Amino acid sequence: MSHSVKIVMVEDDHGHAKLIEKNIRRANIANDIVHFDHGDAALDYLFQEEVRRSGPLLILLDLNLPDMSGTDILERVKADERLRRAPVVVLTTTDDKGEIQRCYDLGCNVYITKPVDYEAFAGAIRQLGLFLSVMQAPEI
Amino acid sequence: MVPAMKRIRPALRTFGTFLRTPTLSRSIIALLALAILLLMAVNAATFVMIQRTATYNDTVDHSQQVRLAAKDMLMLLTEAETGQRGFMLTARTEYLGLHENAVAKLPGVVERMEQLAVGDQDQARRVAKVKGLYRERLKLMADTIELTRTGRIGEAVSLIRNGRGKFLMDQIRVELSAVDAVEAQRLTERTRQSERAQTVTVAVNALAAVLVLILAGISVWMVRRYVAEIEEAHFELDRVNAGLENEVRDRTAELTRANEEIQRFAYIVSHDLRAPLVNVMGYTSELEQVSKALEQQLTSLEATHPELVDAEALRSVREDAPEAVGFIRTSTAKMDRLINAILRLSREGRRALQPETLDMTAMVRAIADTVSHQVAETGGEITISDLPAMENDRLSIEQVFSNLIDNAVKYQQPGRPIHIEVSGRQEPDGWVSYAVRDNGRGVSPRDHERIFELFRRSGKQDTPGEGLGLAFVRNIVRRMGGVIDVESELGEGSTFYLKFPKRLIMLGDYQGDRL
After folding, report:
1. DSSP type of residue B435
2. Which are the contacts of A1, defined by CB distance < 8 A and separation ≥ 6?
3. Which residues in chain B have their CB less than 8 angstroms from residue A121's CB?
């Protein structure tokens, strides 16, 4: 993944955020990671003109946010003509089939369930890192 | 007599109640009784009329005979006179024959008249008078004939001339016509009576007909009103029923909503419990890494500069930290299992049910086959009798029976060959029941409720388990509208009784999420 791609992580649990970041770094991904723990703040950031224009983005999205559902953010992002090109990776504890389906319907690119087992969790994040390293994010 | 009275009294009481209670049937029966009474009255009246007509016919006949006899008498007397006069004029004996013939018939006629006048003083008096008059007249005639025959015609003529004969004859005529007039008057009278009686009969009949028609009309009106009332009641009942159905539907919907909410609640809770668990496990691993790094560092330091290493610190990293991490790990692992159990329970509750006809014998046989090896190892066996089929969700019922059979194997009494017996039968009112009996370690009676609770177990905790199986089983059975019960003695074995509706009843429109 090119260096310019910015990773926007929306995750209310700081512990999860840190673990995700740690494991992404362990997979040798050095891109900028911007972290938001609220849906509002994340949307405010994403819909700034400069962010929308400033280059490729990748969004890591948790579904259980305190102020809104992650699917709301997903919907807004995928409805925006520029932001919708940004790949969205949903990373959450919910493995509800209905929820997964809904995310894909809304245009999510990857859906990963956070395993409670840490080894599996770390493994999943590292694989995500590998995936990110080969992925070409489009310019937006 | 007394027992008879005893039998009759309730009947009388019932009848009394019937009479006192104003009901439709009472009114109709009263109307019918009235109509029958009317018809009987009409019948009686008609009968009386017929009787009276017969009597009238008799009297008419009587009158006619009297009149006929009177006429006959007058005619015979006239004939006798004619014969007498002819003989006197011609002296030919054939006239005498005519006279004698008439005279011979007269007593009979008079006797007939007397008989007819019996019991009728007026007429009898007249007849008696006529009898006297006619005898005198006959005597007079006999005298003239005798005079004529002996040639004393002049004496005979003078005998006639004195007018006695004519006088007698006139008297007789007067009396006879009086008899005739009386009878004629009676005839008129009777005809008038008969006509009046006929009019009365017709009137009575007409009146009765009208009354019967009115009664019939009232009956029809009452029945129609009653039918209308029944229809009204029917309509009302339908309305109430519909209301009841709606109420049931509303309640069911409410319950379904409440159930859904609980399911959703369990689901959300388990997911929200999982999130912190990810951290606990994640950072435990991180700490483990840290402690490993420290341990390596301390070990290498110990090798080079043992005096710098604190023995306490070394033990902490080598023993205490791994031990703490180990406990955290086991606990979080257990918590993860429990959360998964709640999740599974909630998912099972939300799964869409697909009722189908289940061959229970085949299903239980297949489940038994999966444990047959373990059972055979102890020298035991599983007996499955013919089980009644039912219409239900295959997956759910399979889970119920495999849980029960697994438990029977899992909680066997050590050293005793396993015997499991599955039986079932049809129950009345569309139910089927099954029983799973084992000879395992059994459950103490005070734990009979506890074993069905989530995360609760009973007896010696020497087999692994989370206390989920029977909680799942009861949850499923209840969702299927069924009942589960246990009968067990510690050390003697257990019997689980299951009861299901023969056809799965889907509550409301809610059939679960497709998970």
Report:
1. E
2. A29, A31, A58, A132, A133, A134, A135, A136, A137
3. 278, 281-282
For residue A133, what are its two tokens?
Answer: 């390293």
Instruction: Judge if ipTM > 0.90.
Output: no
Listed in sequence order, the residues at least 6 apart from A96 whose beta carbon sits closer than 8 Å to its beta carbon are B267, B515
B271 at the A interface (CB within 8 A)? yes
Nearest-neighbour CA in chain A from B274: distance (Å): 7
A55-76 pLDDT tens trace: 788 888 988 888 888 888 999 9
Give the right CATH number for A6-134 from 3.40.50.2000, 3.40.50.2300, 1.10.760.10, 3.30.499.10. Answer: 3.40.50.2300
Report the predicted TM-score, pTM, of the whole model to 2 decimal places: 0.50
**Best mutation site among A13, A118, A121, A125 for testing chain B: the one with the most B CBs within 10 Å?**
A118
Does residue B514 have a pLDDT over 50?
A: no
Q: Are B494 and B440 in contact (CB under 8 A)?
A: yes
Structure tokens at B352: 């869409």
Q: Which residue has the tokens 């295959």?
A: B394
pLDDT tens profile A22-38: 888 887 888 888 999 88
Residue B512 pLDDT greater than 60, yes or no: no
Radius of gyration of chain A (CA): 14
